[in-house]
Amino acid sequence: MFFERPSSGELAILVHLNLDSENEPEDPREFEELVISAGGDPVALIVGSKNTPHRRYFVGTGKLDEVKQAVFEHCANLVIFNHSLSPSQERNLESELECRVLDRTGLILDIFAQRALTHEGKLQVELAQLQHMSTRLVRGWTHLERQKGGIGLRGPGETQLETDRRLLRYRIRSILKRLAKVRSQRDQGRRSRDRAEISTISLVGYTNAGKSTLFNRLCAANVYVADKLFATLDPTMRRIELDDVGPVILADTVGFISHLPHKLIEAFKATLEETASAKLLLHVVDAPSDMRRINIKHVNDVLSEIDAIGLPTLMVFNKIDLLECSKERIDRDEDGKPIAVWLSAKTGSGFELLFQAISEILVQDMMFDRLRLDSSMGKLRSILYENNAVIEEQLEDNGDFLLDVRIPKANYLRILRGVKINPDQLSVSS
């Protein structure tokens, strides 16, 4: 039901209003890209200005007549608004225009439905669709009426609208139970990585900023890449090795967008929790974009919603091959700490600098030392191996072990407390 799509693009009339009441107006160019990404064929863009939306039709009556004329001239079967419409506005517009009407939220949900490939992704999208649809149910037929007298005429005591709402509630509860299980599995995976002291690096950024291209370069992976919005929906995770850091998990996530529907943020909470628990965020930015600063703000807004805004973040300004006067480089703060890297994921330029910056950030909490363990410290040696902390080991003639270790300082002190060994007991040399 939710994943069936027409085989060819639908002729669509696009409507965009500049509202005085909007602090951050939507971008008409991005709107057109969204429609194309959904498989639509935009044949006309109608733009207007208004102080506040019309209560019944969102647009004024004059602009409504203009939309009607465009639908008639182009034989369009779909009108899409670059705004959120109320259920009543959507119904009133469909009645006046005599064709299907879709708002920005419905458009994004449709794109997500097309991109979802995994079982989890489909469940998340369906949940968001059902929650969106639950406010837009209207009675399409009346064969299920309330109880009335007569043999064979006693109905179930509820209208068709009430039946639909009840079935939606059942389905939503069923999906929420399944997603709770997915969340539990993800939590278990995170706990396993924490026990193994493996850090997670999460790629975040505005949609179509080049996250998947960067991910493929970093991991030698084959994640789907396309020059369109929301090419990646299902998260992908890969293990990579970094010099001086060791193994880390790199996660590619869904792209963000301005005014991302709250229903989607809620539905994808299990997926976005991977971002919220990451050790480092790589915030990928489309460097040549005119909307670069605004897009960064929109991403930060979503990160704030999922409680990830305070995490260590490295800005990655991508697509410098499209800039005239920009070379790969690392930007640093007053203390010399990397805060941004300029590179091109497409050409590979600047990747050595990215690895260097990531290592510098993650290494700050790492301890690199040579430890001398005698025969009574076998338990400590075993735990260090379990935590992937041992880089190299040598056996001395007297039976002592010389271990070159690499481990987060906090974890090292925690391990020593667990085995009740004082750091002063160990003979440590650089």
DSSP helical segment count:
13
Radius of gyration: 28 Å
Q: Which oligomeric form is depicted?
A: single chain
Q: Provide the low-confidence segments as ranges.
A: 1-8, 139-147, 224-228
Helix content bin: 25-40%
What is the CA-CA span between the terminal residues? 64 Å
Number of strands: 15
Give the overall pLDDT as a whole number: 78
Structural class: alpha/beta
Strand content of the residues, in percent?
15-25%
The largest beta-sheet arranges its strands as: 6-7-5-8-9-11-10
The sequence of SSEs as H and E is EHEHEHEHHHEHEEHHEHEEEHEHEEHE
General shape: elongated
Largest sheet: number of strands, sense, barrel closure = 7 strands, mixed
Structural notes for this entry:
With 430 residues, the chain is α/β, with parallel strands linked by helices. It has 13 helices and 15 strands. The chain has helices at residues 28-37, 61-74, 87-97, 104-115, 119-133, 160-195, 211-219, 262-267, 269-276, 292-305, 351-363, 378-386, 409-418; strands at residues 11-19, 41-50, 78-81, 100-102, 199-205, 236-242, 246-252, 280-286, 313-318, 329-332, 338-342, 366-373, 390-395, 401-408, 427-429. The strands form three sheets. Strands 6-7-5-8-9-11-10 form a seven-stranded mixed β-sheet, sandwiched between helices. Strands 2-1-3-4 form a four-stranded parallel β-sheet, with helices on both faces. The protein has a four-stranded antiparallel β-sheet with strand order 13-14-12-15. α1 runs parallel beside α4, α4 runs antiparallel to α5 and α5 packs antiparallel against α6 (160-195). The chain is elongated, with a radius of gyration of 28 Å. The model is unreliable at 1-8, 139-147 and 224-228 (pLDDT under 50).
